[in-house]
## 1
Amino acid sequence: MSHLYIDVPIGKRLIWYLAAEEYFAKKFQVLYANYINHFDGVLFMWIVPPTVIFGRHQVMANEVNIDYCQANNIAMYRRKSGGGCVYADEGNVMISYIAPSSHSEQVFQSYLDKMSDTLCQLGYDAVKSTHNDIMVGEYKVSGNACCAMPNATIVHGTMLYDVNFEVLQQAITPSQEKLAKHGVESVRQRVMNLKEVSRGIKGLEFQSVEQFADRIKELWCNQTYIPTDNDIHEIDKIEQEYLDPTFISRLYPIALAPLGSGRMLWLFHLDL
């Protein structure tokens, strides 16, 4: 399969990249028509500073350690879709994949199969789970979800390479009921960094999380698209929609939305 890589700018807020997912999903057919070597889907990857994302229907105070996040400059956002609370930082590769099909489940499972195979090509013993995670042994290294749009499906995935789990455990507060559902007593028991798996194994040790992401790009994509100034401008406008406090207060009590909180479109799912 052939894929187009979108070389998105670095240093944006997490909600900017979610806005980019929406924008490029709508623009897919335009991109496709402009390339002689047609492709099956588009991919882009991004890394953000410490950020917590919680779901559409979640009570923020029940899922997020607000005092800790504010004291440690951890951004907090709510997304429009459901699902669990997620922590991301510079050790986590965020992956966005868009395919020109509204058959979302088919696209989703195809993505999980290919990403699992990609990790196996890199030397990891990776398999997809029934919960749409990717596992190495008993540990979760990637959480994923999808969302259907007219004529397109967006798959969003996380890849735990070198996440600070100590901060993760402080920043999010999943219920004991949720942990018990997975048969664990803490978040840390259930997840593992790929860097931990790599340590000491020849050929698996990368110099940085960026180098790890580059290897995924090499295995997936054979063409690159650089967003235009107009693309950036349009994505900026969509991002502002997510930051609109009237949108947040219309759906949720203002008291639950921290200053600077944004709203998110896609399920950003590392359901711990």
Note: Confidence is low (pLDDT under 50) at residues 182-186, 252-272.
## 2
Amino acid sequence: MNLWKKNYYGERIKEIRLNYKKYTYIILFLILFSSELKAQDNEIGFFFGGTNYIGDVGPTTYINPFLTENIGEDAENVSNSVVGIFYRKNMSNRFAIKAGFNFSTIQSSDTWKGSADYRLQRGKYFKNKIQEFHIGLDFNFLEFETSSNNFEFTPYIHTGLSLIRFDALHYPIGINEAQAYGKDNDLALPITIGIKMKPLNSFVVGLEISAKHSFTENLDGSYPEFDDSSLYSQRPFGSNLSQDWYVYSGITLTYLFGNYECDCTRWSIKKY
């Protein structure tokens, strides 16, 4: 690794450490602030599902989880999957703060069904692993009372900010399969829609689709960033006017805990 690379990655590491500290302080502030609000409940849970990518390689289907087409004899067949853990603080029956971590694999190939003709002829393929920390705000379209003993249901939307770490990719000269040359970090903007229900007193089950607009053009290796890449990498391709997208589609399962507000009128004692 030359001196330019060392300086570049050194600066990026310092930058990401500062970002982690900043977002940690934000989370602590929000949790402490929300703990003073009434009608609060806590949830901790899991998310699991499939992923798909939208960008300069392969088909541009917007929602297509669990796509597992054969990529080729020399390529590893990796399912597009995501698993995550998250914490949700319900500030009211309408609003909640949500933070968590996701671990996912995305991949795409120009040879997959649905690709444009020029991509089929080009034959690029990539896979990438993404680690994501996210924080944001949920809004419930219907009042969702987590402390109630009744069945609850609502559609909801979510947005916020994600910090992502992923493989930095490029295409060596004469090779159509992307290769990793390091790690990179960037931000993404999640736009999520979903439905959730509370069939039991302590559990919430949901379905959601989350489209992530990243602020990088190199999840697929089309725009690598290193010194004098022309010596050992193909030149950039695709559009540099829009960043890469990736989509999570899956199921959430959370456990409710914490102190509930008491509706003491329900528990009036009869005198005989």
Note: The chain has a mean pLDDT of 82.
## 3
Amino acid sequence: MAQHVDNISKEELWGGNGSPFRISYGKQWMWMFLVSDALTFGSLLTAYGFARHQADAWPIGEETFNAMPFLGDGYPLLYVALMTFILIVSSVTMVLAVEAGHRLDKKGVIKWLLLTVVGGFFFVGSQAWEWYHFIHGTHYGSVLTAEGWAVVDYINEGKDLILKFGRGVIVDGAAAQSLFDGATATMQGANLIENEYAPEVPQYANFFFFITGFHGFHVFSGVVINLIILINVARGVYDKRGHFEMVEKVGLYWHFVDLVWVFVFTFFYLV
């Protein structure tokens, strides 16, 4: 047996002559990385779900995220819906970039990959704006009343005071004014210790910052990688190799971060 092994060249013995599953080793390792990353995101979202289930109050997405750049408040989930749409469109442009690579269409790869990068930049910038708005809070903040913490808001063009106690409980009229006048503390904005959106559950902001930040880091990394691949395509690096497999590899990663956002969007904004 030892003599038989000695007769095999090192290239044949260690090279493998091709990867398992009839895909390249590069794609195979990318899939392994994505599976491990999926387990990480899954664990984070599961922990978020348990925390929310055990809490007595929790922010309502359409009330917490209702601002639009340059337009102010009053647009429930509109901006985050736009962010999500742009990210999904960027996934489509990535598919078209990979398809162009299969046809060895260099100009097509450059065009669609550039649009993917633009979409990624828009999403990351929008998420940064959302963080800024979330940290600074609403115009009026929250107050600690005799009935507990409540988010302060005004309706009817700012004439009538309402207090939002979470879980859809809203107090208005004279009762709201009485509770507001007797408030003993105020809170505005959000950080890792407290947040006006749900003062009783400060872990909400912790989960929001960590999970959306972790995902945002993935998107930003994907934008940087896509930009590097785009430069290499323009320089003709993959023309010399005779294939655009690298575009397909980074495409797998980009589709993954898009898919993860669908779950993050559902957990934090819709449910």
Note: The chain has ten helices and seven strands.
## 4
Amino acid sequence: MKKLIFIIIILIQSCAMNKDVLITISTPYGDMKAILYDETPLHKKNFIELSESGKFDSTIFHRVIENFMIQGGDVNLINDDEVIDYTIPAEFNNNLFHRKGEIAAARMGDNVNPNKESSGCQFYIVQGKVYTEDELTLDINALYGGVRRLLQEDEYADMRQKFIDAQNDPEETQRLAISLSSACEEKYGIKIRKEVSDEILKAYTTDGGVPHLDGGYTVFGRIVEGLEVIDKIAAVKTGPGDKPVEDIPMTFKVDKIGKEKITKNYGYTYPE
């Protein structure tokens, strides 16, 4: 009998381990389905609790910037009786970055928040834009510093004139600067190219995102269905403070389903 009970307990635990949470965020522009990363357990636990308790319901996207992100979840804006003033320790992970559709935690600035702790409720969903490989790998400050030195050399007089001719054309100026990157590295020993993983390069050059936020804000989830809803919300008319002219309320639903089903239906592969 004890052996049977033990086996049942093991089976129950196994089933629980093979399930995950799928969160549906409903808006007037459609539904988004999200998974939350096991690699950020504090943020995952907090987001689930706010979703299941109903505290997130009727919160709005209060800050929207096209080609950047849509921000919401501020419980304090809609409920004077419910003040969420706690923060969550940062949970940075080099494998989690700001590609389109990622969910990350808003926070106060570094001057008052040097540890980069996250807001207890506010989050944003990344829209961003698509980048070129050069935009991702070039250290622009190092590049232009090297180019300025190079153009002082007599042998680059012709190139110097090309820069003068292109002074009102930023794209041409950048193209000329990039063409001199190898020369700068060889002549001055300047490291102009940054090392960027293949995964990050592929994500930002295809899906797009906001790479300059990486390492500064905790990424803790991903929209696995409904990316087009992000684009619709990001395109709305906004007023002062980037607040949409018309409120965009949200409701949240939490479902526990098998990880295999999530992978099959939404294409998310869990880390081994």
Note: The domain at 21-129+206-266 is CATH 2.40.100.10 (Cyclophilin).
